Amino acid sequence: MRPVSVRIMHPEPGPDAGPLTRWLAAARAGLAERQRVAFLAAGATEATILNGRPDGSTFGERLQAMIRRDRPAGLVVLGSGSIPLATQVDRRDLVRVAASDDRRALANDRFSADVVAIARTDDPVWTEGRRRAGDVPRARDSLAGLRSDNALPRWLAESAGYDVTDLRRRWRLAVDLDSPLDLVLTGDRSWAEAPVDLAPVRARMTAIRERAADRNAEVVLSGRTSAATVGWIERHTASRTRAFIEERGLRTSRPGQRPPASVLGALLDRDGPEALGSMLAALGEAAVIDSRVLLAHRLGPDEDLWPRPEDRFASDLLLPGSVVDPWLRALTTAAAEAPIPVLLGGHSLVGPGLRLLLGTRPRARRR
User: Fold this and answer.
1) Are 239 and 283 in contact (CB under 8 A)?
2) Under DSSP, is residue 215 helix (H, G, I), strand (E, B) or coil?
3) Residue 33 half-sphere exposure, CB side, CA atoms within 13 Å?
4) Are 121 and 151 in contact (CB under 8 A)?
5) What is the pLDDT of residues 52-111, one digit of tens each?
6) How far from 361 is each of 277, 288, 341, CA to CA, in Å?
7) What are the DSSP calls for 16-85, one per residue?
8) Average pLDDT taken over every residue of the chain
9) What residue segments make up the domains of the chain, in order of their start?
10) What is d(CA 300, CA 294) in angstroms, rounded to the nearest whole number?
11) Which CATH architecture group holds 4-173?
């Protein structure tokens, strides 16, 4: 068994960051320290938090530089907001794969990873940027080109010759602290330190739970959800479900693929963001919407072209008065004033966060 290093990447907020961005960063920093201690208890040889402000380099460039500098034998790499609901069993499984003598890797989800365990990170593919010793490097094999950790398992399988498996059946490992709303969903200890009023979003969460327990109601779900999540909702709620599954793999798209597109986004193009509430009320008695898909539909997949994180976070908390971007402010106002309870958020909300939102105890079915 090889020694295993854990690297937890924590982006620090910039000097112009707003209160929601700073609040989320502080919560992620606290989680990073808890993960560092827990991975050591799970068998890691050493664990380090890598702090720093975004400097324009890609995830792949940072990872490659770190591996060339530290030369770990086996590695577990994750972001500071990743897997907040992980257990020691999960961490031990990741450490065990990273300590392997084989070219193996284990991710929470191979199609959109937040944590990846990688064995044999002292191989030439890491230290020399080649597939195997003696190979001629090719452009598509470049680790440096990875913009985020989500696509790392694909690179490992297709360019580095690794056997990649994942733990996607463990839904808890898909939860990520990407937004202050995720702090509320997970019950993170820092949610009580919120710099804003959480009453609006908490009231909508309660109302949606009530609608989901109503045999005569229908809950609308739109965004990067999955058939497995829809199946869980069908088994654990009394309401009916209307689901629009769109843009799964948004963060791992490649150049040349068709641009993001959304059915709901197309309707908003036609009628304007102000129409969101009336649209959703015509479809159901409650709605949970992945607003990142709507932004990608409108502005493309590059998050640098989207409204600033502070705006997105305020939108998730249904605080339109704190949103500067006009389109997103209109959308948030429509959601907050809708005749039915509506929640806006990201992947965690419409994916594993639904289990946290709606609870896990089975309710009586209407059929």
Assistant:
1) no
2) coil
3) 5
4) no
5) 887 878 898 899 899 999 999 999 999 999 999 999 999 999 999 999 999 999 999 998
6) 29, 20, 22
7) T--HHHHHHHHHHHHHHHHHHHHHHHTT-SEEEEEEE---S--HHHHHHHHHHHH--SEEEEEETTB-TT
8) 90
9) 4-173, 180-358
10) 9
11) Alpha-Beta Complex (3.90)
Amino acid type, 190: S
Q: What is the rounded distance in angstroms from the CA atom of residue 44 to the CA atom of residue 90?
A: 13
**Other Cβ atoms closer than 10 A to 132:** 12
Residue 136 DSSP one-character state = P
In the chain, DSSP assigns E strands to 4-11, 46-52, 74-79, 104-107, 115-119, 163-166, 218-223, 240-245, 286-290, 342-345
Of 69, 60, 73, nearest in space to 101 by CA: 73
- The rounded distance, in Å, linking the Cα atoms of 298 and 168 is 29
Which residue from 316, 333, 275, 268 is spatially nearest to 294, judged by alpha carbons?
A: 268
Distance from C-alpha of 282 to C-alpha of 277, rounded to nearest angstrom: 9
Q: What whole-number distance in Å separates Cα of residue 26 and Cα of residue 30? A: 6
Asked if residue 340 has pLDDT above 80, the reply is yes
CA 256, CA 248: separation in Å to the nearest integer?
17
118 closest CA partner among 60, 162, 175: 162
Pairing of strands 115-119, 74-79: antiparallel
Query: For residues 318 and 204, is the Cβ–Cβ distance under 8 A?
Result: yes
Q: Determine the Cα angle at 10 with ends 325 and 259, to 5°.
A: 45
CB 217 within 8 A of CB 284: yes
Distance CA 76, CA 116 (A): 6
Residue 219 near residue 237, CB atoms below 8 Å:
yes
